[in-house]
Write a structure and sequence with these properties.
With about 425 residues, the protein is α/β, with parallel strands linked by helices. It folds into 2 domains: about 5-280, UDP-N-acetylmuramoyl-L-alanine:D-glutamate ligase (3-Layer(aba) Sandwich); about 290-420, Alpha-Beta Complex (Protein-Tyrosine Phosphatase, Chain A), CATH 3.90.190. The protein has helices at about 5-10, 25-30, 50-65, 90-105, 115-130, 165, 170-180, 195-205, 245-260, 270-280, 310-320, 340-345, 365-370, 385-395, 410-420, and strands spanning about 40-45, 70, 85, 90, 130-135, 155, 190, 210, 215-220, 225-230, 235-240, 290, 300-305, 325-330, 350-355, 380-385, 400-405. The strands form 3 sheets. The chain has an 8-stranded mixed beta sheet with strand order 4-3-2-5-1-6-7-8, sandwiched between helices. The longest helix has 16 residues, at about 115-130. The two termini are about 30 Å apart. The mean pLDDT is about 95.
């Protein structure tokens, strides 16, 4: 079977797209001799900020000369993006070999699509003998398939309202689920100064050494450089991170704190190593700016913001980035997301809206999205899909304008395809 055949096969193996729980996936992992993991690992959870923090940690590991495996989800354009070795997505043949091993080992144990992918990542990391694995939590933490690994360090970037159907209706309940990635007496890094009580309760119960932003580590920008201090270390005159947007200093600072706590991989990183890691991090779809190639072309900004907190971060980044003309928004929002709060967060910075339909069981039509957005979001056009939405916005844009594409991975991925990137 080719890779698309394998992916279709996996989607048909379990009656539910999501089935939280570790018993099945842990059982198959043990049959594959993947547990305990033979490589150092760090796990990164949170409502927002996971992807950027993972990108910075991957770059720091590579700057330290470590063969680095990275597991993320979902993907933008190709499934292969989910599993990377040294920053490069693995090829089809590598994934297929891993799937063949999993299929042989699982017997009659049903696995979800995400569980197949998680096990494949761990098979590939094991076979590649990586020197460090950076693992992004898929959904929640406690019952997420990635949590079968007992990571050396756990990072919790933020806790906000998202996926309430699965994680609970309050930030306290969501925080409790996300804190499930913590391990007894192992370091925890908190990338926000505002964390639910449930997170701190889990830390106290497990007696984890903790380092929290604005209490144990700090950062401060100074023009075109910034400084980081904490944990008995200080890094002065650091270059601004490669990832753009004001929030990225916080994500970079969190990654530095986590890297310092990860003693197995690099006990004493130098300022030069940290600077090299920060400036070589790569991540598409997070305030990804595409400059005009011709005088009349608009600037494009692509961001996967899909909940209230990430929409607010995108709005702040847009406010901090001046534009001569107007800002057009190309947006698609899944049915299970709060379109009203996302729209309210961005209404003040987007001048004209192009609403896109999204396919799939969680998708919606452009007309439905218009009904879910607040009246302050002025729609100039409705598009059946993202490709038509991008074409519509491009036709409306003039010199000095910018087009912001956001709302989901399901929006940014097709936009990258339309742009030929």
């Amino acid at each position: 079977m080719q890779l698309p055949d394998w992916l279709a096969h996996q989607q048909a193996q379990h009656p539910n797209a999501i089935e939280l729980g570790l018993d099945r996936v842990r059982d198959v992992a043990q049959r594959l001799n993947l547990l305990p993991a033979k490589y150092p690992s760090i796990i990164v959870g949170g409502t927002n900020g996971k992807g950027s923090t993972v990108a910075f940690l991957t770059a720091l590991c590579r700057a330290a000369g470590l063969r680095t495996g990275t597991y993320t989800s979902p993907h933008l354009q190709r499934y292969n993006e989910r599993v990377a070795i040294d920053g490069q997505p693995v090829d089809d043949a590598t994934l297929i070999r891993a799937f063949e091993r999993i299929e042989q080992a699982r017997g009659d144990t049903p696995l979800t699509f995400f569980e197949y992918g998680t096990l494949a990542a761990f098979v590939i990391f094991d076979e590649a003998a990586v020197g460090a694995a950076v693992i992004e939590v898929g959904l929640g933490g406690r019952l997420d398939a990635t949590n079968i690994i007992d990571a050396d360090v756990a990072v919790l970037c933020s806790v906000g309202l998202d996926h309430q159907d699965w994680l609970g209706p309050t930030v306290e309940e969501i925080g409790r689920e996300k804190a499930g990635i913590f391990r007894e007496r192992r370091p925890v890094i908190l990338g926000s100064s505002d964390m639910p009580k449930s997170v701190h309760a889990a830390i106290a119960h497990l007696q984890c050494p903790v380092s929290q932003l604005d209490q144990d580590f700090f950062f401060e920008q100074d023009g075109e450089s910034w400084r980081w201090r904490g944990s008995g270390h200080a890094f002065e005159s650091l270059p601004l991170p490669a990832l753009k947007g004001p929030i990225q200093l916080r994500n970079a600072a969190t990654a530095i704190a986590a890297f310092l706590a990860w003693q197995r991989v690099c006990p004493t990183p130098s300022r030069e190593l940290v600077a090299r890691g920060l400036t070589t991090a790569e991540l598409r779809g997070r305030f990804q700016c595409i400059a005009p190639t011709q005088a009349d072309d608009p600037e494009w900004i692509l961001d996967v913001a899909h909940n209230e907190d990430s929409a607010r971060v995108l709005a702040e980044a847009l406010k901090a980035s001046a534009v001569a003309g107007k800002t057009l928004g190309v947006v698609g929002i899944l049915q299970d997301k709060d379109a009203a709060t996302i729209g309210e967060s961005l209404a003040g910075v987007i001048d004209e809206w192009v609403l896109c339909g999204l396919e799939g069981p969680r998708g919606s039509t452009a007309e439905d999205l218009r009904a879910r957005l607040p009246a302050s979001c002025r729609s100039v056009a409705l598009a059946p899909d993202v490709s038509h939405g991008c074409a519509t916005a491009r036709a409306l844009a003039r010199r000095g304008d910018r087009i912001v594409v956001f709302g989901s991975f399901h929006v940014v991925g097709p936009a990258l395809d339309w742009l030929g990137l």
